[in-house]
Amino acid sequence: MATLLTGKEPTVAVRSTESSRLSRATIAAYSLPSLGLGAMMGLVLVYFLKFATDVLLIPPALVGAIFGAARIWDAVSDPLAGHWSDRTRHALGRRRPWLFMSALLLPVGFVALWAPPTRLDSVGLVLWFAVWLFFLHTALTVFSVPYRALGAELSACPHDRTRAFAASSFAAHLGGIAAIGCVAVIERAPDPRTTALWVAVVVACATGALIAIGAGCTPEPAVH
Asked: For 114-127, what is each residue's pLDDT tens digit?
C-alpha cells in the first residue's frame, strides 16, 4: 500500500546480527559441561550394564527393566523441568540456577550408582541400583533441559546457535572417548569394583566442576 501511494519502496529496518555474534569464549564455556557429561554418561552406557551384571551379579533382564523404567520416567520429568525452568525467576537467570543445582546432584547420583555397600544382599543391591539410577536420571533432567534451552537462547543468530550446539556435541564426543579410556583402566584393574568407584569419583568431580564453570561463564539474555 505504501508503494502504491508514494511510488517508493518502503524502508525496512534491518537489524545487524553482528551485535548478537557469540564470542569463542562464550561458546567454549557453554560446551564445557558436555565434556564431563559425555564421560559420565559414556561410562554408564558403555560399561555399567556389564558392571551391574558381572560385578554386582544383578540379573541382566532386571537391569534392562530398571533402565527402561528410568527412561519412561524421563518422559515425565523432562516436560516438568522445562515448565519449571521457563518460569524460574532468579538473579542468575532462569536456566543457570538449574545448572548449578545439577552440578551438585549429578556427581552424588553418579558416584552412588557405583558404590553399593558390600553388605547388601541381592534384593538390597537391586533396590540400591534402582533408586540411584532414577536419581541420576532426574539429576540429568535438571541439567539437560535447561542446558539445551540456554543454548537456544544464547543468540538471535541461527548460525551462532549452530556453532554453540556443534561445540557442545564435539565436547560430548571427546568425553565419550575419555569414557572408553576409563573402561580400559577398570577392566585391567585387579579389583574392578574398587577401581570403578575411584574412576567414578574422579569423573563426577570433574563433571561437577565443568558444569559450574560453564554455567558461571555463560551469560543469559538480559531479559531473563
From this structure: 999 988 888 999 99
Residue 15 has pLDDT above 50, yes or no: no
* Domain assignments of the chain as residue spans, ordered by start: 31-217
Residue among 132, 109, 135 nearest 40 (CA): 109
State how far the Cα of 13 lies from the Cα of 20, in Å rounded to an integer: 16
End-to-end Cα separation, the chain, in angstroms: 38
Triad 34, 38, 41: Cα angle to 5°: 125
* Highest-pLDDT range among 6-15, 19-28, 147-156, 199-208: 199-208
Residue 19: pLDDT band by 50, 70, 90 thresholds? Answer: very low
At the top level of CATH, the class of 31-217 is: mainly alpha
